[in-house]
What we know:
single chain, 758 residues, three-stranded antiparallel sheet, 38 helices, 52% helix, elongated, DNA-binding
Amino acid sequence: MDTPEKTQITSPLSKFEDSPVFSYINSLSPIKPVKSINIAHTFHSLSFASLPSVFTSPHVNSHKETRFLKRHNYADLSKPEFSSENGNEACNDERVAVDAAQLYDNSSELQESFDPGVSIREASVEPPGEHLKLAIELPRTLNYDCGTPDSDQTPRCGTQTDTVSKSDGTIASLVPFTDVASHKDSSEGQVHLAGLYKIESKKEATECDWENFISDSADLLIFNSPIDAEGFKELFQKSPNPVVGFCTSFSEVQKMQTVNPIGPGEQNEKEDPFTQPGETIELTQMDPTQDNLAANKDPNKYIISNPSKAVSNLHRGMRRRCLDFEMVGARRKNIEDGSSSSSVGVQSDEKITYKNTQLVPFKPSSDSSRCILPGIGLHLNALAINSRDSKKIKHETFSSSITLPGSAASFHSPTSGQELDESLALASMERDMDPSDNVVPFVEDFSQTSPKKKRRRLEGEAEACKRCNCKKSKCLKLYCECFAAGVYCIEPCACQDCFNKPIHEDTVLATRKQIESRNPLAFAPKVIRTSEPAPEIGDESSKTPASARHKRGCNCKKSSCLKKYCECYQGGVGCSLNCRCEGCKNAFGRKDGSASVEMEDEQEDETEASEKNGVDKTLQKAEIQNNDEQHPNSALPKTPLRFSRPLVQLPYSSKGKPPRCFLGVGSSSGLYTGQRYGKPNILRPQWKFDKQFQNVPEDEIPEILRENHSPSSGIKTSPNSKRVSPPQSNLGSSPGRRSGRKLILQSIPSFPSLTPQH
DNA sequence: GAGTTTGAAACT
DNA sequence: CAGTTTCAAACTC
């Protein structure tokens, strides 16, 4: 502990322990000093362990060591009994370790003190090196954590945490805890983790009822991130070392539950910056047996150990714009930063979980950008992972996660990618977007490796989300579909040097602002829809078939507006006067207004349904005419994304691409910001949803649109836009003017955008 | 899957 | 504001 208080306290304590008086007292007390305890491996030992922790003297260190030793011992010792007891001890040891960490300032002292106690136990079983190593590392890590203001000391250490957190403030607090612990292992769990507590009790009953434990823990874990939980499960199940003592496993489990990918040893290594390289090396060498430690030698790796890998993979998988919990993200961030505390950090996670289970849905944190959706699974935005990496990860695990609000956990089963896709799709389908929801669930296809393939695949499927393939734009320009849609790039994206990721949030937002400064409507939906038939839209537009129009109009020269090159066509809208296209043959409506399939339908139907139908018809016709990819709305029913809301309602089919999965984004900037921005505006990705006309009942119309802006008005506002001015500007200009007709930006209202958040 | 075409976006 | 370049999607083979 960096804190002087601790050090002060510790030193006296250590002195006290060292003092003959202390030894004398120990001899008198029914409880024997840790050393003796260690030998006995009995509950008493546990209680003792707690005591030393209080004192923070070398005993503490010994305990730490013992903990690790215990692990090994367990490994060596197949006996369940020992394991259970040891586990208890281990827990105690951990606590002790924590305490020691606080005291750790004098690492040398710890080591020294540590040696004797440890030697007794360990001598037989393990090489002292490990213990020393562990002891050293732990205290360091702990110290580190303590030093960091942010570090969640309490949460980090499941049972241990309590002691740790308390220790920060006062050592005394530790004492009671230790006492409790001494009585029962479970006591620790009680203090901090109810869920854990159960587990511990189970331990006693059976050494390794891991599955049960996992299942139990899973519940707890789910809230944090279902993925993690599963990952943990996998870890446990897969754990190559059955040997791992119960205690060890338990502690690990806790850590794992906490979502900390890094195992204890690993964590230590990460924290290594504090540790001296030489020491660490020695220790690792000392313990060749410990896979985790050895593997973890690489400080750069988040997770080395097998179990940790699974977890890490899972986390990596969750990449997308949305984060499960900020907490998680924060944690990860911390980890990345190196600030993350070791095992302690993990434990903290646990704590958070059980405490915050409620929180899970969503935290509006400062980091909000990451967390878009409440309850949405988080993609480790915090972790800056290259899309490439993610791809790699995919193979191992479902790289991308779907962030479904609420139930993310359910979806994150470590199943095959297809299953995930399906589950995701289902989830998305099941999940209706609440008007309040900022985020729109997006589903991604994990199975596909190449973006194109994915895209195509998804195209067929209404659900698919778009993925970009940017190579030079860094996904920070409107060229990038993801960026344009206001969403972060995700694993499936094949982009290179992508900056459109949560890690680069600042850059993304800055760029976004910059672009908006140039063109306020840059992120506005490209297609504007009118509730009523086109007449409003433009002079000619009135003739145009589609109720919706492209805000800027197209500029097609060669495609005759019959291919997706044409944004109007792509959006399923007819060309309007604003269009400068040549040889327009837009199936949805020619610029000259000649071909309007929809006109009739639209005129008749102002209602959503009617409009939709019209759209569908138009689309169908278009297909017929063009033989293009587009499918009529028929896809709609299939679309997983069908949202209760209008946003999603539009048939994606019109576009070859399914609407991209987007996170709900509030204002234009909002996509990235997500909830931060406060208003749960309906966000639509301009994206392809926009393009498709959506008839949105007024009710459904985003507040922004309703309240303020007639869409048209918004359009007009664009100062810069040459094109920006909507062709329908006439329409838009007067919201009230035309009977009830409303022009609505399908996509998220970008206008209020950027500013609100920051 | 690679290469071409296309038009929007960005730049000058 | 117009012209040019850049870019990535759409498309073709």
